[in-house]
Specification:
This protein is α/β, with parallel strands linked by helices. The chain has helices spanning 5-15, 31-37, 42-45, 55-62, 72-90, 141-159, 186-191, 227-240, 260-267, 284-290, 300-306, 316-328, 374-381; strands at 20-26, 46-51, 96-104, 115-122, 126-134, 177-182, 197-200, 206-208, 212-213, 216-219, 244-249, 251-252, 256-257, 275-279, 291-292, 295-299, 332-336, 338-340, 343-345, 360-363.
Length: 392
């Protein structure tokens, strides 16, 4: 296929920018993907692209059966999904844009409705929508596909900070309508304290303030996530007979606030089947409110910090109040032994305040022992790393 010079030029410019994208197509527009792949560098730009040609595939993405598929709201939902997926796949390496295109074009039978498309380009702080109704019968299928794909490519180019002006060859009765609006990245909403939690689902979808209870929670900074975390999750799930969820607090009592880029990097480490919940709660008494009737799975070293007076201003009354709040939320702790100061320490080595021993249960050494921590992994990667020990 001959690719016109103006398209070649724009594709080259797009690949020269750091932006990465996830693209969702339904009905048409995927010729833009071919153009992007026609030049070297597409692996820097394209994170993922899905062509949802069966109606059920689009319904599966949307989570509901729309009255009409080719409408602005469908394109926006597709683009939002693509953006969320991109946050996970980019691993914080580059800015992300999600693109949703829903269209209907000429086929091997006469369609009753109009031909046209809705395209949405979702960025971190805004979205832009493009819509056009085509003169039915004025073009063949290939020509309609090429026109819609040009709209997609032009929208991507503008998100890259370029000023593309691809030739669309519209008829006098046709016009490309453009609109835009504000978009709030869910991670930014969490960092701004506008939402309490952000849940990253195994497939990459993101939800905010989802009610979660009755779980096994493994909290940590996951810098990096390593096999010890995963083995602990499996052992805890089997011991407790509960679903296991990882929790990453973006505010940490020892390490301060994690930024957007770093959050994306850590999120990118998690794969199926694990759920990851991001919170703003650095202390377990606060976490208990988010995860009622749950069990916090912690290592011996974290249990020491949980009970350390410095987190309670040296006030034993405040320590007891925090533990009482955890109990009131129906939560308790499963403690895994850890190598500590030259020996393997377990729950029996802890000094638990009087009246609170029922909040602590031991994960038997026979079920789990792996003397590895994220700080150990970091030191192997960078011997000069002096970061605080991990919480999990």
């Amino acid at each position: 296929m001959v690719i016109q010079p103006e398209i070649k030029h724009l594709v080259g410019e797009i690949h020269a920018t750091p932006l990465q994208t996830v693209m969702e197509f339904a009905g048409a527009g995927s010729l833009a993907l071919f153009w992007l792949h026609s030049q070297g560098g597409s692996s820097r730009t394209i994170l993922e692209a899905v062509d949802r040609y069966a109606a059920l595939s689009t319904v599966d993405l949307l989570g509901t059966q729309p009255r009409r598929f080719v409408v602005a709201n469908t394109a926006r939902t597709m683009a939002d999904h693509a953006y969320q997926r991109g946050l996970r796949l980019s691993a914080g390496n580059a800015p992300v844009v999600g693109i949703g295109c829903t269209a209907t074009i000429a086929s091997d039978y006469v369609k009753r409705g109009k031909h046209g498309c809705h395209v949405c380009v979702m960025e971190r702080t805004r979205y832009t929508q493009y819509a056009i109704t085509l003169d039915k019968g004025a073009r063949d299928r290939a020509e309609e596909e090429a026109l819609i794909s040009r709209i997609v490519l032009q929208g991507l180019g503008r998100a890259c900070g370029l000023e593309p002006a691809l030739t669309l060859n519209l008829r006098n009765t046709e016009s490309l309508k453009t609109s835009s609006g504000a978009h709030r990245d869910p991670l930014d909403s969490l960092l701004a304290d506008e939402v309490e939690t952000v849940t990253i689902h195994p497939g990459g979808d993101i939800s905010t303030d989802q009610q979660m209870a009755g779980l096994a929670i493994i909290s940590g900074s996951f810098d990096p996530l390593h096999e010890g975390h995963l083995q602990l999750a499996r052992a805890a799930g089997a011991h407790l007979h509960r679903s296991v969820v990882f929790e990453l607090p973006v505010l940490n009592a020892d390490k301060g606030t994690i930024g957007h880029t770093e959050i994306c990097r850590r999120v990118g480490q998690f794969r199926r089947p694990w759920h990851l919940v991001l919170t703003r709660q650095p202390l377990f008494a606060e976490k208990a409110v988010c995860f009622r009737d749950s069990v916090f799975v912690i290592g011996y070293d974290t249990a020491i910090r949980l009970l350390h007076a410095r987190y309670y201003e040296g006030d034993e009354t405040k320590t007891n109040a925090a533990l009482a709040a955890i109990r009131a939320a129906g939560c308790h702790f499963l403690v895994a032994g850890r190598r500590w100061q030259g020996r393997f320490c377990t729950l029996t080595d802890l000094s638990i305040p009087t009246g609170f021993s029922d909040l602590f249960e031991e994960l038997p050494e026979a079920n789990f022992r792996l003397d590895t921590s994220s700080s150990d992994v970091r030191k192997r990667i960078d011997p000069n790393n002096t970061s605080m020990p991990d919480a999990a």
